[in-house]
Structure formats: C-alpha cells, structure tokens
Amino acid sequence: VRRLMLVAVGALALAGCGGDGDSAADGTLTVYSGREEELVAPLFELFEEETGIDVEVRYGDSAELAAQLAEEGENTPADVFFAQDPGSLGAVEERGRLASLPDSILSLVPDRFRDPDGHWVGTSGRSRVIVYNSDEVAEDELPQSSLDVVDPKWKGKVGIAPTNASFQAFVSTMILEQGESKAREWLQQLRANDPKLYEKNTAIVEATAAGEIDLGLVNHYYLYVVQEEQPDAPIANHFLQGDDPGALVSVAGAGILDGAENEDAARRFVEFLLSERGQRFYVDEAEEAEYPLIEGIEAKEGLPPLDELSGPQIELDDLGPELEKTLQLLNEVGFTT
Amino acid sequence: MTQPRVPVALAAVAVATVALAVLPLVYLLLRAFSGGTTAVDVLNRGTLELVADTLLLVGAVTAAAIAVGLPLAWLVVRTDVPLRRFFAVAAPLPLVIPSYVAALALLGAFGPRGLLQRLLEGPFGVERLPEIYGFTGAWLALTLSTYPYVFLLTAAGLRGVDPALEEAARGLGHSRWAAFRRVTLPALRPSLGAASLLVALYTLSDFGAVSLMQYQALTRSIYLQYRSLFDRTPAAVLGLVLVALTVVLLVAEQRSRRGVRASASGATRPPAVLPLGRWRWPAFAFAAAAVGLFLVVPVGVLVYWSARAVDLGHEVTFPWQAAVSSLSASALAAFFAVAAVLPISFLAERYPRRWTRVVERLAFTGNALPGIVIALSLVFFAANYVPALYQTLALLVFAYVVRFLPQALAGVSTALQAVNPRIEEAARSLGRRPLRVVATVTAPLISRGLLAGAALVFLNAMKELPATLLLRPTGFDTLATEIWKYTSVASYSRAAPLALLLILLSAPFVYLVTARRASEAAAPG
After folding, report:
1. Fewer Cβ atoms within 10 Å of its own Cβ: the N or the C terminal residue of chain A?
2. Taking the model in full, what pTM does it have?
3. Across the interface, which of A75, A323, A334 has its CB nearest the CB of B390?
4. Distance between CA A173 and CA A295 in Å, rounded?
C-alpha cells in the first residue's frame, strides 16, 4: 500500500509538471486547430517565439471542432478557432459563438476572402485541384471536370478525405451551385465508384505518389509537402476550370471565440497570422505553398497567380450555412458511417 | 447471531463511488433520448448492417482465435512437439501488443506502402498486394491480440483434465481422436466458452484496430458520427446499441463462468505426453507459423520501421513527454481505481446483504461500457455541466477508473475473501478502532491483491485509446495517441518506435500479471 501511495504521489507530481494547467489561470492561449499539425505547428512556434505567449493547440478536423465548439457553447476553453475552411468558421459564427474582429485586422485581406459581417478572416488562400500520378495518367487523359471522377474508368482509383473540411467545402459548393439532390446523386455515384478513403489530404497525395491511387481530390499545396520528402515522386496538380466545384478558390481562416478568456492574446495571434512574418511563412518557411493574402507578398514561384484563379461564383460566407447539410449528406451516402 | 450494523460512512462512500461509476451510462441514456433526432430515426437499415458487420467480425475473430489458440495449447501441454517449452513462453507473448499496434504492424508489413510491397515491387514488379484494409486487416489484427487468451485459458483447462478419464476411454477401445472428442473436448468446454466470450467482448469493444483498418464496426462508426455531424444524438444512440450487445455477451459469459466452477475437477497427476510420431514436424510447422505470423512478423516490422526512421533522417528523440503522460495518467488511474474499490469491496465482503451485493455488481458497469462510449458520455456531460473538469487530466483519469473498476475490484475482492474476518474481529475486541484495524491488520494482508489490481488497471490504461483521444487535455499526448496519429496517416516510421516503447514499458507487467489472470485483463485499445 505504501508503494502504491508513492506511485500515486509521484504520478501526481509528474502530472503537475506535465503542464495541463487551466488555460484561463495561466494566460495560455488555447487554439482549436482544424489545420494539420504537420503543416501549422511551426507557425505556432513562431508566434510563441515572437510574443512569449504560450499556446496550447487542440488538433482535429475543422468540422469536428466546429461541432465541438457548438456542443461546448460558452463553456469552451478555446480562445481561437483556426480552421481549414470558411464553412466550419461560418457554422460556428451561425451559432453566435464568434466575436467581431477589429477593422484593423479585417482590412488586411481582400473582401472576397473574409466574412462580410467581420466574424472571421481568411489567413491563407488555396485552390482545389486533382492531384494525379503522372506515371499512370497522361495529361490528356485527365478528367476535364472534377465531377468526372465518377466515371467507371476511375473505379477504385480515386482518393478522397470525406472528414476533411476542404472536401466538405467542395461538396457545399456543389450544393450551392446545383442543389442538394444533384449533389446527393453525384455523391452516390462517387460512392459506387469505390473511392479510397483517407483521413487527411497529405495521405492522399502520398498514396498517389506510391501508385496506390491515380487521382486525388485535394488542395493544391499538399503536393509540395510530399515533394519535399520525395523530390522524384511522379505527382502533379491538375487545376480545373470555370464553374467546376473542383476549382473552388477558398481560404483557411481564423476567428476569435465570443467571450474568450484570453481575448488579448487571441487578437495578437490573429494579427500575427496576417503579419508580414506570419504570411511570409507560406512562401519562405513552409514546405507547403499556400497563397499569402496580405498585400505585397508574392506566392511561391511556379504557382498560378491567385487573381487568375476565379473558381465557382460563390461567396465564401455562404459555405457556413451549408455545412450541416453537407455533413448530413456525406453521412447519408455512407462516407462517414 | 445478529449481523453487525453496516457503518454509515462506509456505506455512504461506497454508494457514492458506485453512483459515479454508473453516471456515464445514465447520462448516455438521457442524451440519446433527448436530442434533436429521435433514437428511432437513427435505428434504420444502416444500423442493422452496422450491427451485422460488427457481429461478423466478432464471430470471425473468435473462430480464428480458437483455431490458433486451442491447437497451440494442446500441442504445448499434451504433446512432444519440438521446442515445446519455447512455444509455451512465446505463444502468449502477443498479449503485450495492443490491437492498434497490431494493426500498425500489419499495415507496415502488408499495407500498400508496407515492407512486403517494397520488397516485391523492385525485383518482381508486383504492383498491388491484396487489400489489407477492411475486414482482412481488422480480423488479422484482432486475432493476433486475442488468441493468447484462448491459449492461456485452454492450456490451463487442459492441465486440469484428469488423464485417467482419457485413459479409460482409450481402454474402452476408443481411438485417440475419439477419446479427444468425447472426453477431452467436453471437459474443455467451460474454459473454451469463457475464452471465446472474452475474445468476443474484446473484439466488440475494440476501437483501434477497426478504425485503422477502416472496417465498419460500431465503435468506428460512433467515432466517425461524433466527428462528422453537428447532431450528436446518432453517436449516443449507436453507443447504446453497442452497450446492449455487450450486455448480451456479458450475461452469456456469466453463465459460462458458472459452468467453469462446476466442472473444475483438479487433476491428480500431469497427463502423459502424447508422442506425435510422423505428425511431429507438421505440428511444429503449425506452431512456428502461428508464432511467426503473430509475434515475429509484428515485432520485426516495428523494428524495421524504427530503423527506417533513422535512415530517413527523422529526428529520433526519446518521446519523454508522451511516455511521462502515459505513465502518470495510468498510475493515477491505478491508484484511484484501487482506492475506489476498497470501500465497495469491504462493504460487500464484510457486510453481505442483498443491497451491498447490488452495490458491488453496479461497480462492474464499466465492463459493459466500451471506452468510446464512456468517452462520448463524459465529453457531453462535462462540456455542458462541469466545464471546470472538461478536458482535464482529472476527467481522463475518472474515465479510466470507471472503465477499469472491474479489474481493480476483482483483485481486491479476491484478496479480501482470503482474509478471515475473525482476525479483524480479534483486533477490534482488543480495543483497536475499526479504521486502525483496517490500516494495520487488513491492509498488509491484502496488499498483494491491491498491487495486482492496480497493475491490471495500470496496464489497461497505458494502452487505452478511444477515451484518451476524446477526453485528454489539450496538448496532452500519450504514447497511444501518438501511435494513433502517425498510423492513421501511414507514417509507419514515426509510429513504430513509439509502439516499441509502449510494448517495452508494459511487457514486464503483462507477463507477470496477465499470464495468471488472463480473463480479467482483456480490454482492447
């Protein structure tokens, strides 16, 4: 019994140093990040270095975290929601859980990449693409539209990440453009075409590189993450045209929770994301290559300029109200059961 | 003789503890029947398919675990198979491999970017191996993690069969096979029954292997629904479906245990070793193949990928933080679980009444609650009603305690039963106050039982995955969650060293504790 006591006391002591303190008490900023740890962990480190503010990050899928924020309501320990897409941010905003951002932050970013009501702001831009294995698929064989991946010739050869916010934004776009029943029909066809399901976009691009699949529905920048580790991988991005929901140009973004206990630190974090340093990250430091959104910083070389990518004519803040429907649809079709 | 009065304080503490232990189940019920969608909406054809798929896996794993575990046990206990003693030690070792680590090893070996693909692609141009994801992978991983239970229990059963019975059957003109079928097998039925139900329960509540292998089992579906819908009622309802299935199996297990006691016949001498003759080497090949596939391959693959990590130039540093998190959370769980069962066990053993027995039975609720279900319930409950505990280590430890209370209870109750209450009475009659009697007389006598119970809880908490994923404090990574993170994105070279560390940290305990108490130790990751 004495030994047991010793173990327990020791464990308590360890747990104490383990640093799971109450975030409100010690001024630690708590961020719910729907963006992948692999991609954004260095960004959090930069912020900690620059400001001396400690950050605790809870990683998850953006929609999962949005649902969690909805469940938690005012009890949430989160100060900032850093999401992979405007849909998740919009869904949290819809529930009245995001605070208004100051104009000094909002005005840094072009109108099209922020919430017109000022509750969230885009922090980096991206385009949907089809990533493909260039050994297996010649350029002229590529599908003309992302909707064509339901063609039987791609049966079992397409990768998707149905729990991932960017895929969900793509489906929401389809609902906005063509209506729910068309979207359902397409998803059912996709399901019947036996796509391979992945947790994350990086995994899709890696699988494409390994020849496990031929095509993947992803965002443009994951290609560069994988190329960093495998420079010779036979993979390339296929940008789509026009109103194709697979050509969606969107943003990752951030919002501050209403009643955040560390409001000041939260604001400094969002400011940091849109500072010169925070934006140059996507050009100089990150393995990936997202589009910086503030004026005066050019995207990484070799990317088509952001202005030239038009994508479907939808407003990003329309994605939020669609998210719940999209999730239901994906569930109904059987991608998330 | 009048029964001694039940001390009020003791009863209050025990009842309060049990009330906490049933809280997750109660709240889940409330939640499932108060959400936006009704339970009836959720229970549709899709749910039936899900249940069918889950039961299919449960059946297949149980059958395979018997097909591997029973012959191995028979060979090791009753025959002259070569390297018999080696197999006796090696066969149960996969016990130290949690199901999700088994899945990691299988993916690392046979997955589309696994070791075998690498080996075959170059020289033989094999483009695609047969699919490991889905049923095959989940089935193999869970068979690996569960056949040791069949092996251990049936080996014990075989040792308990009186050889005189078989000899009598042979003397009456039965062939060896007929004697085995008509005498040995019926005598083994209780231990085989207990083992299969144990395997079935393990499979039913397993989360890690089915998720990593993307097999549509209930646990995975609950987690997916939780993550991918705003309406969380469906997850809660599916959780209740899972609890219902578990209860059915638990009831069946209770019945089979009754059978075990009835037929325990105490062998008077060890059975004669059966010479296998020309079957000696085929039998050896079977044992070697089983141990090879389920022990050597997984460990070899983990070692290979750990070595690759160095090749790939990953920064290989000792994962201090994750190891300390795992160890401290598990140690806390072990301490509090034992502390929580002491009053319950004391009440039930020393003041046997109908109601104190009920209190004790309720403490076993955790057995019917798979980790994902406890986690789900506590996430909802804490986020809505006790924000101060939400995402704290305290709540995570609480979940472990509820889940593994039965293991602790088994250890402590067995020890308490072995202490004659007269000793305590004598001490009291000599003028010691009751609490001091417990501290100075009872406690030293049951300390081994307490340690055994604590060790079981510790081990299970170390490898627990689903509750840890949902309930951990922000930034609190354990070995289990790190392995999960890297395996789910096919980053085998990062997951493998952590998996080896988890195995190394828990192996010594597993060997000491579970070899003797396999039936109490089964809890999947």
Report:
1. N
2. 0.89
3. A75
4. 27
Strand pairing partners for A125?
A251, A291
Q: Residue B350, Cβ neighbours under 10 Å: how many?
A: 18
B residues 201..260 contacting A (CB < 8 A): 214, 216, 221, 224-230, 232, 234
For residue B164, the 8-state DSSP code is: H
d(CA A199, nearest CA chain B) in Å: 7
Cα–Cα distance, B184 to B182 (Å, whole number): 6
Residue whose tokens read 């109108």: A111
Q: Are strands A158-160 and A196-197 parallel, antiparallel or unpaired?
A: parallel
Q: What is the pLDDT of residue B297?
A: 92
Contact B475 A334 (CB under 8 A): no
How many percent of chain A have pLDDT more than 90?
A: 77
On whether any CB of chain A is under 8 Å from the CB of B263, the answer is: no
Distance of CA A44 to the CA centre of its chain: 16
Average pLDDT over residues A38-47: 93
From the list A112, A160, A52, A165, the residue with the least C-alpha distance to A293 is: A112
Q: Which helix (H) or strand (E) holds A133?
A: strand A121-133
Q: What is the pLDDT of residues A214-229, one digit of tens each?
A: 999 999 999 998 888 8
What is the number of alpha carbons within 13 Å of residue B346 lying toward its C-beta? 27
- Cβ of B328 within 8 Å of Cβ of A15? The answer is yes
| Residues with Cβ within 8 Å of residue A81, at least 6 apart in sequence | A31, A32, A34, A65, A66, A69, A88, A89, A92, A98, A254, A255, A256, A257
- CA dist B404 and B402 (Å) reads 6
Question: ipTM of the assembly?
Answer: 0.87
- Residue B284 backbone zone (phi > 0: left; psi -120 to 50: alpha; other: beta): alpha
Determine the residue among B54, B328, B478, B486 to mutate to test chain A binding: the one whose Cβ has the most chain A Cβ atoms within 10 Å. Answer: B328
Amino acid A6: pLDDT:
54
Q: Which two tokens stand for residue A117?
A: 């009501």
- Closest alpha carbon to B209 in B487, B492, B506: B487
Chain B residue with the nearest C-alpha to that of A165: B228
